[in-house]
Every structure is written in C-alpha cells, then in structure tokens.
Design goal:
Belongs to the ABC transporter superfamily. The structure is a single chain. The radius of gyration is 19 Å and the shape is globular. It starts with a strand and ends in a 14-residue tail after the last helix. By secondary structure, it is α/β, with parallel strands linked by helices. Helix content is 37%, strand content 23%. It folds into 2 domains: 4-88 and 169-270, Rossmann fold; 96-167, no CATH class. Helix 6 links the parallel strand 7 and strand 8 (202-207). It has helices at 45-52, 78-87, 106-118, 122-135, 152-164, 182-198, 210-213, 234-239, 244-259, and strands spanning 4-13, 22-29, 34-38, 60-68, 71-72, 89-92, 170-174, 202-207, 219-224, 227-233. Strands 6-7-8-3-9-10 form a 6-stranded mixed beta sheet, with helices on both faces. A 4-stranded antiparallel beta sheet has the order 2-1-4-5, with helices on one face. The longest helix has 17 residues, at 182-198. The structure holds adenosine-5'-triphosphate.
Amino acid sequence: MSLLSVSDLSILLKSGEGQPIVDRISFALEPGQRLGLIGESGSGKSLTTLAVTGLLPPGLRATGSVLLDGTQVIGARDRTLDRVRGHAAAVVFQEPSTALDPLMRLGKQIAEPLRRHRGLRGAALRSAVAAALDEVALPTRVAGAYPHEVSGGQRQRAAIAMALACRPKLLIADEPTTALDVTVQAEVLALLDRLAAAHDMALLFVSHDLAVIGKVTDEVLVLSQGRAVRTGPLAEVLSNPGDDYTRSLVASARRLDAALDLTPEVSDDSRGA
Ligand SMILES: Nc1ncnc2c1ncn2[C@@H]1O[C@H](COP(=O)(O)OP(=O)(O)OP(=O)(O)O)[C@@H](O)[C@H]1O
C-alpha cells in the first residue's frame, strides 16, 4: 500500500461559488519516495499539501480521497488527524515562524512533540532535544534561545527539528527555503536531502522553482491553475517539457540555474548558519 495516495482531490469554496481551486488531482508516494510539486503562485500547491494533512482553512472543503498511511484524511475527525499528524506526516512551512511560538525557548518547543508523542521525560528528554538539535546542525546552546534571538536559517533548522521529532514517514516541505538567503537556502536543502535519506522519509516538496526542486527530488508533478498538467521524472520534464506552461517553467529554471550557484553541500564551518 502507498504511504500517500491522493485520488481525484478537488478543493472548493464551502459556499459552492466558482470553479474548483484544485481540480481532480491524483498522485501517490511510496515509503521513502520523493515528489516535487511545482507551479506558479496561486496554482494550488499549498492548498494541496494542507488537504493532505487535513489542515484546509475553514472556508474550503476537499472532495476525493487522501489516504495517508492507511487513514482517510478527507472528512476525518480531529482526533484521527492528530494521530496521523506528526507520526505519519509533518510539515515544514516557508516561514519558520508559522511553526514556532515566539514566546517559548526553542529547546522547549522541540521537547514538546518528543514528550507528547514519544513519552520522553527528564534526562532522556534533554538528551533527545540535544540529539534533535545536533541532527539539524544546530549547537546545543540554541535550546536556550527564543526564536527572535537566532538567524532565519537557524529558525528553519529548529522548525525542521520539531517536524522530525516524531520520526514522520512523510515530510511535507512547502517552499522551506524561499524566505532564506541564497547560501543558507543551499544548506537547508542539503540538510533536508540528507535527513530524508538518513530516515528513509518520503518527501513532498513544494516549490515554484524547478532549480530548487532538482536539488532534492527526481520526480515532479506540475500544477497549473489547480490542474496537474505534467507528471514524471524531472530529467524527462526538463528534456521534453511538452505543454507551454511547463516549457516556460523549464526556461526560467535554466535562467536561474545559470544565475545562482546552489551547490547543496553543508560544510563543517556552515553549521548553525
Ligand atoms: N482560504 C482561502 N479561501 C479562498 N481561496 C483561497 C484560500 N487560500 C488560498 N486560496 C486561493 O487558492 C488558490 C491556490 O492557493 P495556494 O496557496 O494553494 O497557491 P500556491 O500554488 O501555493 O501559491 P504560492 O506559491 O503563491 O504559495 C489561490 O488563488 C488562492 O488565492
């Protein structure tokens, strides 16, 4: 059975007005598999990932089927969704502050899911927090800092540590590097790549940028105006873009790749960037 199986997913306004925002898209992810969701701003990428975890905003509803680790997410009760979130799937957002409480020290925030879902307490909890920080290449002292006291890159690393605390089978990363400086972007991409491989985690990676997607995954699904217009191996999409929309994405990715050097290597001196 697939880890994630999305069939004919549509997202509509609850009021019933207008066209579907996301229109009958289907895709599946096997354990450990990676997929890049790409498309222009407003094409429905974020709403698709929110529907996968049952987090759609109140005015919207989903139809179709989203089977996540054997649980039907569409129409599920909050208690059921609480169980799948964190353990089956966790999300890293574009803006790390979305996941972080500005008034709580980072160590305490990383400890929270470890305590709640893995039942850790005392010395075992402290050492798990230290290990979680080390895994995302943050120094232990960051545990005592508030989110505003660390850099944007460090905040995103802390948010990644929180997302990984319950060892999710699927990590959803929604434009996780867009808010970061280019050099920090490359480090965070390399980190996600390394962690997904180390934990055999599936990855659903959202970006409007093919050059960024290409650093972490070989498979893509191209969304345009809520519809899946292309799916397949990235290399095939690049060499044979097909429709006009995908062709323009490929052309802009080539321009970007020429302009940026996104070498995804984390060196020892960049720890904690
Ligand atoms: N709560 C909402 N109510 C009504 N429409 C919404 C809501 N949230 C998003 N939309 C609309 O749905 C469409 C898809 O939004 P979505 O955030 O999924 O796009 P996206 O591809 O992730 O874009 P971006 O790259 O800019 O984040 C957009 O036109 C957006 O305006």
